[in-house]
Amino acid sequence: MAWGLTGFLVGLLLAQAVGRILGLRRRNVQKRLQLFSELGIESKSSPKIIGFFHPYCNAGGGGERVLWAAISALQRKEPNIVSVVYSGDIDATKEKIIDKVKARFDIELSPRTLHFVFLQSRHLVEDSTWPRFTLLGQSLGSMYLVWEAMSYLIPDLYIDTMGYAFTFPVVSLLGNIPIGAYVHYPTISTTMLSRVKSRAQGHTNSEAISSSVLLSQGKLLYYRIFMYYYAHSLRQAHFLMVNSSWTKNHVDSILRHQDTLLDIIHYVTPLVILKVLFRTRKDSPKEALIVYPSCDTRQMAVFPLEGRERVILSIAQFRPEKDHLAQLYAFHKLLELYPEYRGSGPSAVKLVLVGGSRNIGDATRVENLHMLARELGIHDQVQFVVNASYPDVLNWLSRASIGLSTMVDEHFGINVVEFMAAGVIPVAHASGGPLLDIIVPLGGEPTGYHATSPETFAEAFRTVFTLPQEAEFAMRQRARTWAVQRFSAEEFEKGWDESGWRKWLFE
What we know:
Number of helices: 20
Largest sheet: 7 strands, parallel
Distance between the termini: 48 Å
Strand order of the largest sheet: 3-2-1-4-5-6-7
Low-confidence stretches: 1-6
Structural class: alpha/beta
Strand content: 5-15%
């Protein structure tokens, strides 16, 4: 009797859910016609719609450059395709975003085939909303956020360009449409699991956790369960692009991830319903395709290689993982070891931090960095440039001697590519994209330096500032040559097209 009642209630809930989904799809027909009317497009031509899920599209970072470069190329090559961006930037307008893209990236966008769906629930994917169980909270928040997006408009092809894989099951259920993704950084990785297992403190593993055996074991279990669902979500994609060898290695490993014990638990408990939601497609991708991010190097590649100022330049959003604290400590160590670089004389060195501030959290981090610079006694030689325009960024790139990146396991490092194209010698953390893809030898000769600690960063700075003039010029030239050849906008567009998105859109 109890089982029969339970079955009846579950069936009733499923019937209601199916009804809502079918109603959503029926209403979508009218919403498509309304969109075409707003854009002045003849619906008789049956234009296709590609939806880009990018809640922070107005942030002005490297991930946003990829989004806008893809849409710009789409508008040039496929004028009959409408690009819809699902954004949480409710304080912006279509016109303001287009203007900012032009100012920040020098990328032209046509308003005729571009539309924005502004989402009201972006706070659900903010890390500040989830001080505990952040990964889980943000992932569940993204599922609600994409439900809101699909309620407004279901596209013909859905592409996530921010790394919200947990949206895939929802899109598949509501829209039954092909799904693609450009992954900048896996939400969880085997590296994160190993850090918790070894109880190593870091950005994703606080001291409170790493110092406790019990809490570390609990977090390992949490990560194991999260990895299980993340892998199932990724497998619902029809095609996957990644930005570097480091990201590909991790994503490919996640696609192969299996957990027999959790499989059994799901099949013999009511959790079996989640297996339906997170079902794996038979033709799911077995590996991801590397498509290096677009870097428009045309303006940077003409900057003079000689006469550079004694400036160490950082270009990175003021997000915690970018580790601006490490930059201040490295600069402090340089001045401590080599006091001749202090002051305002001809040998003095300056650290300039250029970056975007997206929200109150970022603004607070900037204030904390100011305070740390004062505590370290280096504030007079540190300059912060927040939310700089693209011309301002180019100006600093044309003047600086060294480009600094301290993020550990940086997924790619488009800022490092920009350094090299501009003739700025890069010094980056020895991990991720900068180690495997970007700062690599050209013709057997170095194109920059890697470091792992304040001391090694300081020594790398010292090495650059003491290079003989001829060797310095040659390194700047090698760095530029490699960046321009390997990471051009043309190479990005070629890789994007090789992902097979056309096949899924037009089949």
